Amino acid sequence: MLCLINRKPNPALFEVKKVYQNIKVHPINLIEGRVLIHNKFDFITLEDIKINWELTANGTIIQNGSVDNLEIESGEQKEAIIQFQKPNLESNTEYHLKFISSLKNSVLWAEKGHILAWDQFKVPYSTVKESNKLEDFPELVIDDLKETYEISGDDFKIRIGKTSGVL
C-alpha cells in the first residue's frame, strides 16, 4: 500500500518514485565534475526539465548550480560537466554531489519545480581523519568481581558476565 486511507504517503511511495524515475545521472569522474545524463523517457526530451546540483559537506550545501543544454532526446545519454570549485578539504568530512531534476514550468499534473528525479554520489576526496587522543577521554575504572567485570566512567557503569558475556 503506497498511501494510507487518508492519502498520507507511506515510505514505500518515495521508494517507488525513486525506482521509477526516468532521468538518471551516472558519475564518470566526479572530481572533474563529469557526469552522464540518461533520458529514460520513451517520448519526451529533457528540454522542459531543469537539473540543479548541490555540493555538500556533511550535509551542508557549500556550492550549487544547474546543468545547462539539456536537449537530450528520449532514450539518449549526454555527458555534462559540472562547474564547481574544489572545496577546502576538512578532516572528518564527507562530500556529496546531488542532482535534482524538476519541471521548468507547470503542467496539468504538477506545478513548476515538481521534483521528477534525484541522484546523489559521494565525491571521492580523501580527507585525513583526525585520531582521537587517549588523554581526551575520561579515565575508566575496571573492577574484576567474582562473576562479572564492572567497567565504569564519569556517566556510565556496565557489567559483563565472565562466562556468558551478557551485559
Descriptive key words:
three-stranded antiparallel beta sheet; 2 domains; 6% helix; LacZ_4; Beta-gal/glucu_dom_sf; single chain; elongated; EC 3.2.1.23; 10 strands; mainly beta
Provide a descriptive summary of the structure in words.
This protein is mainly beta and 167 residues long. It has two domains: 11-123, Immunoglobulins (Immunoglobulin-like, Sandwich), CATH 2.60.40.10; 133-167. Helices cover 6% and strands 40% of the residues. It has one helix and ten strands. It has one helix spanning 11-20, and strands at residues 23-29, 34-39, 49-57, 60-67, 77-81, 95-103, 115-123, 141-144, 148-152, 157-161. The strands form three sheets. A four-stranded antiparallel β-sheet has the order 4-3-6-7, with no helix packed on it. Strands 1-2-5 form a three-stranded antiparallel β-sheet, with no helix packed on it. The chain has a three-stranded antiparallel β-sheet with strand order 8-9-10, with no helix packed on it. The protein starts with 10 loop residues before the first helix and ends in a 6-residue tail after the last strand. The mean pLDDT is 92.
Secondary-structure blueprint of this entry?
Layout: H1 11-20, E1 23-29, E2 34-39, E3 49-57, E4 60-67, E5 77-81, E6 95-103, E7 115-123, E8 141-144, E9 148-152, E10 157-161
Q: What amount of the residues lies in strands?
A: 35-45%
Provide the gyration radius in Å: 25 Å
Estimate the global geometry from the Cα principal axes: elongated
Largest sheet: 4 strands, antiparallel
CATH topology of the largest domain: Immunoglobulin-like
The stretches of 5 or more residues where confidence is low (pLDDT under 50) are: none
Structural class: mainly beta
- What is the subunit organization of this protein? single chain
Helix count from the secondary structure assignment: 1
Q: What is the number of E strands?
A: 10
Domain Beta-galactosidase: 36-124
Pfam families: LacZ_4 (PF16353)
Catalytic activity: Hydrolysis of terminal non-reducing beta-D-galactose residues in beta-D-galactosides
GO molecular function, one term: beta-galactosidase activity
